[in-house]
Amino acid sequence: MILRGTPRFRRTFVDVWRVLLALFVWDVAVTAFYLTGPIAAPSLPVTLFGTGLALFIGFRVNSAYQRWWEGRVLWGALINASRSLARATDAFMSEPDEEMISLRRRIVLHQIAYAHALREQLRRGDPAPDVRRLLEPADADPALRRQNVANGLLDGIALLIAETARRKRIDSIQQAQLERVLIDIANAQGGMERIKNTPLPAQYRSFPEFFTRLFCILLPIGLVESLGWATPVGSTVAGLMFFAMLRIGDDLVDPFANTVHDVPMTAMCRTIEIDLLEGLGEPSPRPPKA
User: Fold this and answer.
1) Is 94 helix (H, G, I), strand (E, B) or coil?
2) Residue 23 pLDDT level (bands cut at 50, 70, 90)
């Protein structure tokens, strides 16, 4: 995600300039035909059409933003749960012997790898490089053999906690508390997968775009009598507003796409990695630059 104090209008214009150029040519043709020809333009209730279309597009943009915001909330919950898991692991497995230090470190590294793997799964990428970077082959391979690598890593954490409980290094209450944190993480992952795998209905995309194009075709016919030769400018500016709103909806509808508009998963995974490695007392990477 790129964060700036002001929006980049050039990026939006680049996305819609072809449609706007065709609209401008149509506006000029309608204006010239009306002002130089013998046929008067019919009176069209463009205000009524525009109001209805704005409500339609606004409802679509709100639906897309709700998906984006829910995705951001779920990732925030994942960050908090990752910190809670690392903190509880450090508190419950605080014995200074080598075995407990190793188990604690493996659990924390599993959680860091889990966050990176989940990010790549949501972006339809390959989670293997990050998983192998963080885990030994004995820990990484069982998860990488599964279709849902992130869920495999979460199961790996549960197995490590169960192994610690079998060795009587934590009691059943502590194991249950750690398991509740894993449930919170699994619930967050399930919500993200639901958003990713359930797109908006096709009507939400096709109907607003169709009615926007129809409205832009009719708009100069309804404006030419009052605006005269200024009709192409006024109609094109109005078209830019509607097409920009359509573009905003397209940008927000998939919050986990690898674009500048998506939820900043790379930065949040790096936050998890920094916090959890610092909790282990190990060197941590620097935050990424937006």
Assistant:
1) coil
2) confident
